[in-house]
Amino acid sequence: MLFKTTEQHEEFRAKIREFAETELKPIAFMLDQKNEFPDEIVKRLAEMNMLGIPYPKKYGGAGLDILTYAIAVEELARIDGGTGVILSAHVSLGSYPIYAFGTEEQKKKYLVPLAKGEKLGAFGLTEPNAGSDAGGTETTAELVGNHYILNGGKIFITNAGKADTYVVFAVTTPNIGTRGISAFIVEKGWKGFEFGDHYDKMGIRSSATAELIFNDVKVPKENLLGKEGQGFKIAMATLDGGRIGIASQALGIAQGAFEHAVEYAKEREQFGIPIAHHQINSFKIADMATKLRAARFLIYSSAELKEHHEPYGMESAMAKQYASDICLEVVNDAVQIFGGNGYLKGMEVERAYRDAKICTIYEGTNEIQRVVIASHIIGKPPK
Ligand code: CAA
Q1: With left for phi above 0 and alpha for psi between -120 and 50, is residue 145 left, alpha or beta?
Q2: Beta-strand pair 165-171/121-124
Q3: Is any atom of ligand 1 closer than 6 Å to the C-beta of 45?
Q4: Alpha carbon distance 121, 223 (integer Å)
Q5: What is the whole-number distance in angstroms between the Cα of residue 237 and the centre of ligand 1?
Q6: Closest residue by CA, ligand 1 atom 5
Q7: Which position among 208, 322, 352, 379 has the lowest Cβ density within 10 Å, counted as fewest Cβ atoms?
Q8: Please, are residues 352 and 331 in contact by the beta-carbon 8 Å criterion?
Q9: Residue 284 burial (CB count, 10 A)
Q10: Would the pTM count as exceeding 0.95?
Q11: Average per-residue pLDDT in the chain?
């Protein structure tokens, strides 16, 4: 169990914090208001070798650890929740399944440009009838000669349209449940692969989210990821790690709002003293700080478990569920401390309040996290 980050981790944090403060902060409100994807920021992250943080150098990555990646997501989300999830979806969801389950050829062709940041990645699992019940996938992939023919669609896909490489899940053998699902690597630009309009979201508005539409898309046989029928397990294993990213995003959003609230509470005076020293607020600040610290330990320790190839699925679900639950509490308290000022557009805490909510919903709702945690402890319910 890790109780302290290393000097290298904190040097890395200082570097990405400086970047986020100087390059992301000045445009964060504009991105939110215009629903605009931060192309330039993503380009800069690639230049700084941040898009393949936990992947080996031989695959174009930075060769750093999972904890460093978690810190990167946290620090970006401290300034802008949307940018945090762009990195998380690219590293954890778009790149990881290729790293963990791809052949050497697939890694050379797809992982290397993803890890170098030359290409952006995404993950297509969710469908209108397969949300929490991911096994209800209806998109199909039928093998015809040397190609699978992909038909169907995905919804709520982070990085949709902006990403070049998509890991997509589809049914290859109908009527046998999760064991009939397979994973494929699909490229933007292939005939029949289109995108829906970008959603107009409550928060994380700098991130691109849209539908994927597949109409007779010819996917070469060699783009099957893993074996036929292994797709659901690939999706689940990928989400185990993805949840560390979303937990880090939630932590970053909450940390940012907390810092603004503390600063404001120390300056704002009512009844002749800074409002921070009214016990109602000082206790709030104490509770916020405690929750942040607890969430950070859950996240960093699950990152360390993953790094050391120890089981971490239950721990990452705990981290995601707890960090996103407390994120909502912390941003709510932050807006409360700001009073009417916190309710105004242009205030960071107002944006954090909107950005926070999605963290309890995506990459498995917090209800599903509890299903995952409980099943690790008591097993699945009897049939
Ligand atoms: N790793 C590897 N294998 C796993 C696994 C894991 N973590 N979890 C389950 N499996 C295996 C099981 O062992 C089982 O294998 P067998 O067929 O050999 O028995 C198989 O997968 C089926 O498992 P379950 O019976 O447990 O599956 P289920 O249908 O009951 O579903 C669930 C379980 C946990 C509810 C799952 O459906 C789930 O996680 N749902 C949530 C989906 C989700 O998180 N979606 C997020 C979309 S991505 C996103 O949101 C991205 C974004 O925008 C940023």
Answers
A1: left
A2: parallel
A3: no
A4: 15
A5: 8
A6: 236
A7: 379
A8: yes
A9: 20
A10: yes
A11: 97
Gap from CA of 232 to ligand 1 centroid (Å): 7
Q: How far is the CA of 50 from the centre of ligand 1 (A)?
A: 28
Q: Convert the pLDDT of each residue in 115-142 to its tens digit.
A: 999 999 999 999 999 999 999 999 999 9
Cα four-point dihedral sign 222, 226, 229, 235: negative
Between the CA of residue 225 and those of 79, 241, 382, what are the distances in Å? 35, 18, 32
Residues 6+ apart with CB under 8 A from 101: 183, 225, 226, 230, 234
pLDDT digits (tens, 9 = 90+) for 15-72: 999 999 999 999 999 999 999 999 999 999 999 999 999 999 999 999 999 999 999 9
Measured from the CB, is residue 233 less than 6 Å from ligand 1? yes
Residues with Cβ within 8 Å of residue 124, at least 6 apart in sequence: 154, 157, 166, 167, 168, 169, 186, 212
**Ligand 1: does its nearest atom lie under 6 Å from the Cβ of 362?**
yes
Helix 313-338, helix 366-378: angle, nearest 10: 140
Q: Which residues are designated catalytic? A: 363
91 CA from centroid of ligand 1 (Å): 19
Terminal-to-terminal C-alpha distance of the chain: 36
| Burial bucket for residue 192 (CB in 10 Å: 0-12, 13-18, 19+) | middle
* 364 in contact with ligand 1, CB cutoff 6 A: yes
Given a contact cutoff of 8 angstroms between Cβ atoms, the answer to whether 282 and 45 are in contact is no
Q: Crossing angle, helix 348-357 and helix 231-267, to 10 degrees?
A: 160
Q: Give yes or no for residue 1 having a pLDDT over 60.
A: no
Token pair belonging to 141: 């992939």
Ligand 1 contact via 241 beta carbon (within 6 Å): no
Give the mutation target among 232, 248, 302, 376 for probing the ligand 1 site: most ligand atoms within 8 A of CB. Answer: 232
Tell me if 374 CB under 6 Å of ligand 1: no
CA 149/CA 151 separation, integer angstroms: 7
